[in-house]
Amino acid sequence: MYSEKVMDHFKNPRNMGEIENASGVGTVGNAKCGDIMRMFLDIDDNGVIQDVKFKTFGCGAAVATSSMATELVKGKTIKEALEVTNKAVMEALDGLPPVKVHCSLLAEEAIHAALWDYAEKNGIKIEGLEKPKSDISEEEEEEDY
Ligand code: FES
Q1: What is the 3-state secondary structure (H, E, C) of 9-37?
Q2: pLDDT 10s digit of each residue in the chain, 145 long?
Q3: CA of 57 to the centre of ligand 1 (A)
Q4: Which of 14, 38, 40, 128 is least surrounded, with the fewest CB atoms within 10 Å of its CB?
Q5: What amino acid positions are annotated as catalytic residues?
Q6: SS3 state of residue 130
Q7: What's the whole-model pTM score?
């Protein structure tokens, strides 16, 4: 059911933890399943993501997608990080079962929420970044669980 990469990132999550005094912190939840993800970003003066950590209170697919998402945004610019969509994360993981696709939205939204927090703290506007949702289930399509 799950690809080897998903299992690997689930069993050995990369960048798990938190960053003290992070440049930006974002927390996103899914009210339907109750899962929560928090993303911490350390962004330098050039707008490059030097470090990223996450904490996920959620299912295995949420853990694996957050882990892969942190790997994909680390060392990237803010603009590049915005291109790390849930689809890009899923591709990097060799796919997710259809009923688990919504879990990957948590990672995307958590990155956006952390970037939003960073922008607010610094009084800047990040082009292309929309105010993130705190609950991703609002935008989920009707699905059978
Ligand atoms: Fe809730 Fe996966 S079941 S995020």
Answers
A1: HHHCCCCECCCCCCCEEEEEEECCCCEEE
A2: 899 999 999 999 999 999 999 999 999 999 999 999 999 999 999 999 999 999 999 999 999 999 999 999 999 999 999 999 999 999 999 999 999 999 999 999 999 999 999 999 999 999 999 988 889 887 665 544 4
A3: 9
A4: 128
A5: 33, 103
A6: coil
A7: 0.93
